[in-house]
């Protein structure tokens, strides 16, 4: 049944409809592959009984001609999405064995469309990290290896379990979340496609919160078409989320293959950062050349406040995190560590339940929100955020349809390789992605080449608000020009 794993989302959908194989057969193939791939540590909870039951239901609906958009297709769910009756921990000890009595809006939509849930996927604790090494379940392992080396590599953060599972063919696709690059960076590290949609395109209801004004759900998939199909199923208005946009969801799949002739693509000069590796610079130029060859006009643009994005992000995000994570106190749900009084119980629970990175961000956030520093840090960071958003608005108002940049400053690095680095060095992994979240824009990472040691490298496309269709059409051009070859050799 291993050949069943080779089909893309779109191909599997067609074959299921033609009854070339059943949803149960497809699901069993994935469950067997998951069992064989446990060294990757992509899943933190496997749900084979639920998967097979839902696959059987899908087969019944297919037989009666009532198939949904995702009918019978096996997916993984990031452990940040609440799943009714299935443990959801945000990969943190403080949530223990928390089992939600409700389903997130996004996973409910996918379930209603017929998707089969294979299990819950690894992520950085509360989505705080750039390498998925902060998870209470340990780091997932990238299915890629450097040429001539067996050293394990990170799968990217925070959605490393999602990216590793899709790249390793142990999920057809996966849900993910992006607060500062947590969909696009893991996708770039694993040779998969990840799209962070416009803020408000997908409801945040039922997703464990990190930074509420930045968090956004999206898919990680094998190719651009699959990502378009998945986003179409995930998106939609939700009255329970006050930031959910009441807008019609376009046919994103129809945008794949659309001509880019006449589009104007911007190259921001501020993204040519000091110390950028030559291979990243060359890939960026190659991407621009591919788009020119497809009929697009490529122009240089300026996003002059880009250099302030990373420090502003690491004020805004921890501030919101410190507020959101105040609810984890050992009283209502999750872990509880007793103390002599309620204050000590709070302190003991949070000290034992949160990992070092989460504690660091809570302390930073509490500091910048404190009475003496609120105006000096948090208010100023929000003003910078406004300037960053205006930069993009000016560029798009000038006739630019999309912006092309590198997705990451490097290929995937080794597990533990950054252990002795300062937190700031780790945060620099988000240098090309955080602006998109600060401005609430859509961004997609698409594999476009390989590093000198054979690892995937990706380009990022940034679009106008609620214009994901242009991103899918331009990303498809890059995907076609790159020519594939982004399936890792199996070593596990």
From TrEMBL:
E.C. numbers: 6.3.5.7
InterPro entries: Amidase (IPR000120), Amidase_CS (IPR020556), Amidase_dom (IPR023631), AS_sf (IPR036928), GatA (IPR004412)
Reaction(s) the record says it catalyses: L-glutamyl-tRNA(Gln) + L-glutamine + ATP + H2O = L-glutaminyl-tRNA(Gln) + L-glutamate + ADP + phosphate + H(+)
Keywords: ATP-binding, Ligase, Nucleotide-binding, Protein biosynthesis
GO biological process, one term: translation
CC per GO annotation: glutamyl-tRNA(Gln) amidotransferase complex
Domain Amidase: 25-471
Keyword Cell inner membrane: no
Span of the signal peptide: none
GO molecular function: ATP binding; glutaminyl-tRNA synthase (glutamine-hydrolyzing) activity
Residue numbers annotated as active site: 78, 158, 182
One Pfam short name: Amidase
Family statement: Belongs to the amidase family. GatA subfamily.
Assembly behavior: Heterotrimer of A, B and C subunits.
Biological role stated in the UniProt entry: Allows the formation of correctly charged Gln-tRNA(Gln) through the transamidation of misacylated Glu-tRNA(Gln) in organisms which lack glutaminyl-tRNA synthetase. The reaction takes place in the presence of glutamine and ATP through an activated gamma-phospho-Glu-tRNA(Gln). Hydrolyzes indole-3-acetamide (IAM) into indole-3-acetic acid (IAA).
Protein's name in the database: Glutamyl-tRNA(Gln) amidotransferase subunit A
Organism whose genome encodes this protein: Methylopila turkensis
Record gene name: gatA
